[in-house]
Amino acid sequence: MLRASSGSSTLRSQRRQPTSGELVAAKHSADPSTHQSTGGHLEVKEPTEVEGVLVVGGGYAGLHAARAVHRCGVPVTVVDRTGRHDFVTRLAAVAGGTAPVEDASGPVESFVDQVVVGTVVEIADGSVTMSDGRTITADAVVVTAGSVPSRPPVEGIELAHAIRSAEDAIALRGSINRASSMVIIGGGATGVQLSGATAVAHPSLTIHLVEAMPRLLAGMPEAFSSGASRILEGRNVQIHLSSDIERITEQGAIVGNSLLEGLVVWAGGFSASAQRYGMPTAEDGRILIDEALRVLRSQRTFAAGDIAAHRDHDGDPLPMSAQIAVRAGSAAGRNAARAVRGEPVQAVDLRQIGWVLDLGARRGLAQVGPVNLTAPGADLIPPLLHDAIDLKDLLEIGGVHALRYASTSVRSLVTWPLAVWPLRTSPTVRAVTT
């Protein structure tokens, strides 16, 4: 667990574990100087200045950035809209029903001691402005939050469910439980994994998976497309390729001249919205950064994860993925710590080194180096890799104490008595007003 040094300007908070296993929605305090929530969290005073590095966002990039800063011996504070770390790679399983809601998220304060809960609306070099008008300054800032589900100009798109956050996944899970049919728009990683999990947990549900491209998982090796089609069709998922959505209605989605009835879910990818922070951005809305992940025209502000325009050594754009977010977050955190200490920052070499998808029921798809694990039999390995990566991520961001948030899938593989496993609590999902 990260332990930032104390100081007059650094947030310090006491905390205890929630006493209830129920999901609790807590409203942000009306008092702009404090945050009060239910579920066992105590009131915390929020600072206007923090020592060391301020990380914006408590996702994969944010927590890995915070961990890297801490390892460099520099104090670190994380500001996050909800105060929850969403385990994004588990959300399809949670929404689909093959994983419990407890797998969806954990409190950021379980991984980082210094936490500010609130919404950042503007970022300057070395400072951020919150939605209530307060400004928080730091010696350096790492921006990792700001991506949202893409919303194309499709009539009725507002009727479609999204799946980006733990709150989205839990709400969608409830809707799926009440549905008799379902239309998932987008045959990328999210859509394929959601289709697979839902088909396992709800075998009687009619599931349509709609993709505009000629194959599923178009951004991955072709072996992934055939492997995904084989697994999903074996679970009676109806796949519609080269199909455009005309419009979305309360009854379903219009594809061509046909109505596909059912609960509509938009899984067509994500987009960045860094313009709202007042930062230099590329055409796709991602923050422009240099080779050290420093925001252009800045000295003390860095960016990492989906919000940043990461490129590989050939200058080609890198995908929005948890893998890139983890590695970029760590690198940005180290460079931010170097900047605080007055040391030269270092260039960062990023590249996508593979893919791992869990489709539920111990089947999945993976690419490890040049090897594709997509064929029958080989598709048993990717879920194990998925669990191993999940476990490694927890250990990296929070040490052994973070194992209390190990996924149910990982826990099912444990052979020693659960009594020796660190205690785990159910999440408190907060709806924060801004």
Overview of the structural elements:
This protein is an alpha/beta fold and 434 residues long. The chain contains eight helices and 24 strands. Helix 1 runs parallel beside helix 6 (322-340). The model is unreliable at 1-45 and 423-434 (pLDDT under 50).
In short:
With 434 residues, the chain is of the alpha/beta class. 22% of the residues lie in helices and 21% in strands.
| Spatial strand order of the main sheet | 7-4-3-11-21
What proportion of the residues form beta strands (DSSP E)? 15-25%
Largest sheet: 5 strands, parallel
* Residue runs with pLDDT of under 50 for 5 or more positions: 1-45, 423-434
SSE blueprint and pairings:
Blueprint: E1 34-35, E2 44-45, E3 53-56, H1 60-71, E4 76-80, E5 84-86, H2 91-96, E6 105-107, E7 115-117, E8 120-124, E9 127-130, E10 135-137, E11 140-143, E12 147-149, H3 166-178, E13 181-185, H4 189-201, E14 206-210, H5 222-233, E15 238-240, E16 245-248, E17 252-255, E18 258-261, E19 263-266, E20 270-272, E21 301-303, H6 322-340, E22 354-358, E23 364-368, E24 371-373, H7 381-398, H8 408-411
Parallel strand pairs: 3-4, 3-11, 4-7, 11-21, 13-14, 13-19, 14-15
Antiparallel strand pairs: 1-2, 5-6, 8-9, 9-10, 12-20, 16-17, 17-18, 22-23, 23-24
Helix pairs in contact: 1-6
Keyphrases for this structure?
four-stranded parallel β-sheet; five-stranded parallel β-sheet; 434 residues; 8 helices; alpha/beta; single chain
